[in-house]
Each structure stands twice: as C-alpha cells, then as structure tokens.
C-alpha cells in the first residue's frame, strides 16, 4: 500500500526552543522519501520520529541559513554510515555551493553512498521526472537566494466499477486494459476511456523563507498539501517584510487564493508562546480548508483523492 505523508521533524525558525527543534521535514511519497531543510538536530529527530537514513532518496534545501541546513552534515554522514543502498540526490541553491561542500565534508568520514549534487539556479524549473512525480523549484524572495519545491503526480485514470461490469470486464482483464488502453470484448473494442474517468494527480509544495512573491503563489497553486512558513503573526507584518518572511494571515490568504486543500503552517518565531494564535489568524484571513499548525514529530497525511 502506498504511503504519502509528511513527517515533521522540527518547526522552529532561527533557533531551537525547549519545544521546537530546528526545521526538518520528510515527505514519504510511495516508496521514496524526500528530506526538506534539515536544520540542526535533524538526525536525532529522525530517530525519535522513526525515520531511517534508508528512507531518504532526495534532500531539498531551500536556502543556506543555519536553521534550514546545519543538520546536513549529520544526515549525510549517517547516510554513509548506514550504507544506504540507493543513490541520494541533493538539490540546493547553486549560489550556496561552498556552504553545501562545507557541510558535506564538515568532518572526516568514509563515503559509501553515491550522493549526487543537483544545484538549482536562475528562476528554478523542473529538477527531476520519475514515474511517481515531477519535482520543480521556484525562486522565492528572501535576503539570501531561496527556492521552494513542488511535487506533481502525473494525471491518471480512475476505473469505474459499474462501467466495467456493464462490459463484463473483471479480474486480470482490468489490469490488461489499464496497461494496453483497449481490450477486445465480444466482437468489439472497449477503450480505457469508456470505463474510467480522468484522475488529477496529487500535488505538494514546500515554501519556506520568503516574502509574498510570484514564486510562492505558483508553487501553491492547486496543492493538496502545502507546507509554508508563517514566522510572524499579523501584527508583526513590518518585521516579516523586512526580514523576508510571511505572517500567518499572509500564508493563509495565499493558500486560499491558490485553492489549497490542506495547509500546514510552520517555522514559528520564538517570540510567540501560543500556537493557537497562528490558527486563529489563518482562519480570520479566510482559509477554509483543512489547517494544521505544525508540531515537532507529528505526521500529516496527504488528503484523500477527490
């Protein structure tokens, strides 16, 4: 059975707190795992959350501020220590190549795993295409070069049992029809389109440190699950603009305009003690979908298909 869920490893911005670790998020997408923004302490949070180094196929870093990347050194070394049997690909801003190399080779260790470097430059674009998804990046607005990431599943077909039954198609014939697109049945051809309907692929986006910008809107558009920073509450919007961040209300309005189904707010400033304030302001901003104020070590499932 395929699993698609977000494992939240850390939710603090800038510095960890007693209750929140630096950033870190693992997206389980069927048989793959994509680790986003491993901040300081990510390796230990992985242990606590039941995430193994073997679960990681890709690492996506939005930018090279410490709360989004200091954990790279430990994660990379753990991947090699555990002799992960598959290659791992790392995406990160090309302008931060020197930071990536410093973190990758922070101390001496034995390299046992193929770690492919695939930096992102310019305005971003398509980074990878697999059978299960297309991975894209878009440039964001932050004092240092920053990118957000988006996964889009290819559109497919949903089989309609009543139409299959009407044509007497069942068992192994269904799989054959899905593979070949047509089936000869009692003297006539039954096409896949006759017994199925279009099914839109699921969409996920990860938007960290940024002001409101075109890239953030593009990434969020039509997402089933959007993970987005909301460093500040609305009353501190001038600080958000100055330092290149979003408020809870800004993030929620962006999600509402983009038609997001499930919104996950994260990356909270240590200045705030009550997480329910983020939820309250997000609702006041008009977001009516499913809403999660992220906590360390929680798991968030992608919404079921419509």
UniProtKB/TrEMBL annotation:
Residues at which Zn(2+) 2 binds: 67-68, 209, 267
Cofactor note: Binds 2 Zn(2+) ions.
Key words of the record: Endonuclease, Hydrolase, Metal-binding, Nuclease, tRNA processing, Zinc
Presence of the UniProt keyword Nucleotide-binding in the record: no
Binding site for Zn(2+) 1: 63, 65, 142, 209
Function: Zinc phosphodiesterase, which displays some tRNA 3'-processing endonuclease activity. Probably involved in tRNA maturation, by removing a 3'-trailer from precursor tRNA.
Protein's name according to its UniProt entry: Ribonuclease Z
Organism whose genome encodes this protein: Streptomyces bingchenggensis (strain BCW-1)
């Amino acid at each position: 059975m395929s699993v698609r869920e977000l494992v939240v490893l850390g939710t603090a911005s800038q510095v960890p707190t007693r209750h929140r670790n630096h950033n870190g998020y693992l997206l389980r997408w069927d048989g793959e795992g994509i680790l986003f923004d491993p901040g300081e302490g990510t390796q230990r949070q992985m242990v606590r959350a039941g995430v193994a180094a073997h679960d990681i196929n890709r690492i996506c870093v939005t930018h090279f501020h410490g709360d989004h990347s200091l954990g790279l050194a430990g994660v990379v070394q753990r991947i090699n220590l555990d002799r992960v049997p598959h290659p791992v690909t790392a995406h990160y801003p090309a302008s931060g190549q020197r930071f990536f190399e410093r973190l990758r080779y922070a101390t001496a260790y034995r390299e046992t795993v193929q770690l492919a470097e695939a930096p992102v430059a310019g305005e971003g674009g398509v980074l990878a295409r697999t059978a299960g998804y297309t991975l894209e990046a878009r440039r964001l607005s932050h004092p240092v070069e920053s990118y957000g990431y988006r996964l889009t599943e290819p559109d497919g077909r949903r089989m309609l049992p009543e139409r299959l039954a009407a044509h007497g198609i069942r068992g192994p014939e269904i799989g054959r029809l899905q593979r070949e697109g047509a089936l000869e049945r009692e003297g006539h051809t039954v096409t896949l389109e006759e017994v199925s309907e279009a099914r839109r692929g699921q969409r996920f986006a990860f938007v960290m440190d940024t002001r409101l910008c075109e890239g953030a809107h593009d990434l969020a558009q039509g997402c089933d699950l959007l993970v987005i920073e909301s460093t500040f509450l609305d009353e501190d919007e001038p600080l958000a603009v100055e330092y290149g961040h979003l408020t809870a209300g800004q993030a929620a309005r962006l999600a509402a305009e983009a038609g997001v189904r499930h919104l996950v707010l994260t990356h909270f400033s240590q200045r705030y003690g009550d997480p329910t304030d983020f939820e309250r302001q997000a609702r006041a901003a008009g977001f009516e979908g499913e809403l999660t104020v992220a906590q360390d070590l929680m798991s968030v499932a992608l919404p079921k298909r419509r």
